[in-house]
Amino acid sequence: MIKVLLLDDEALVRSGIRMILESDPEIRVVAEAGDGEGVAELVERHRPDVVLTDIQMPRVDGLEVTRVVAAGPGAPQVVVLTTFDLDEYVHTALRHGATGFLLKDTPPRDLVRAVHLVKRGEAMLAPSITRRLLAHFAAGEAVQGAKTRLEVLTPREREVAVAVAHGSSNAAIAAALGLSEATVKVHVGRIMSKVDATNRTQVAILVHDAGLA
């Protein structure tokens, strides 16, 4: 039997969620509340396996509930269920220790499945949130990859590369750095060779990806 503690400030919503969860004979809602205040005591008293909490509640919201529950001894898994999929909510909830983040339009079967998954220690995220997180991490990998490729440049070459990313001509770069145009041209050629770029545009994109311009 999977024991669930349910927190939501709307009684009608709690009733609906309870019906959905308890349609599965392996799930039982052992307690519920309309606010996160006193959640540590509820967890201590009822020993739930999963805490299912709304985010926006009076006094103590679901993000604080997640932090408090996850920090406790023998902590149950926390699933955040909300109308809002704002990135700030998602990131805060996951940092605080939530193992699930679902929207309230989640199909009933997926809500039941989420409870089973998090009980086993697995994660369950709404598809839209998963896509955004993957995009976020992919962007992070792109930034790191660009920085790694630029590490081979000398300090002077890096200055020239940043100037190229700003759209400066060889003449403008030469004037700004106190170099001859010929020297700048040599630097640009070396930069393209070192970072495996075929033109100035690719150098500019790489510099931008690395966050240097």
UniProtKB/TrEMBL annotation:
<dbReference type="GO" id="GO:0000160">
    <property type="term" value="P:phosphorelay signal transduction system"/>
</dbReference>
<dbReference type="InterPro" id="IPR001789">
    <property type="entry name" value="Sig_transdc_resp-reg_receiver"/>
</dbReference>
<feature type="domain" description="Response regulatory">
    <location>
        <begin position="3"/>
        <end position="119"/>
    </location>
</feature>
<dbReference type="InterPro" id="IPR011006">
    <property type="entry name" value="CheY-like_superfamily"/>
</dbReference>
<dbReference type="Pfam" id="PF00196">
    <property type="entry name" value="GerE"/>
</dbReference>
<protein>
    <submittedName>
        <fullName>DNA-binding response regulator, NarL/FixJ family, contains REC and HTH domains</fullName>
    </submittedName>
</protein>
<dbReference type="InterPro" id="IPR016032">
    <property type="entry name" value="Sig_transdc_resp-reg_C-effctor"/>
</dbReference>
<dbReference type="GO" id="GO:0006355">
    <property type="term" value="P:regulation of DNA-templated transcription"/>
</dbReference>
<keyword id="KW-0238">DNA-binding</keyword>
<keyword id="KW-0597">Phosphoprotein</keyword>
<dbReference type="InterPro" id="IPR058245">
    <property type="entry name" value="NreC/VraR/RcsB-like_REC"/>
</dbReference>
<dbReference type="Pfam" id="PF00072">
    <property type="entry name" value="Response_reg"/>
</dbReference>
<dbReference type="InterPro" id="IPR039420">
    <property type="entry name" value="WalR-like"/>
</dbReference>
<feature type="modified residue" description="4-aspartylphosphate">
    <location>
        <position position="54"/>
    </location>
</feature>
<keyword id="KW-0805">Transcription regulation</keyword>
<dbReference type="GO" id="GO:0003677">
    <property type="term" value="F:DNA binding"/>
</dbReference>
<feature type="domain" description="HTH luxR-type">
    <location>
        <begin position="146"/>
        <end position="211"/>
    </location>
</feature>
<keyword id="KW-0804">Transcription</keyword>
<dbReference type="InterPro" id="IPR000792">
    <property type="entry name" value="Tscrpt_reg_LuxR_C"/>
</dbReference>
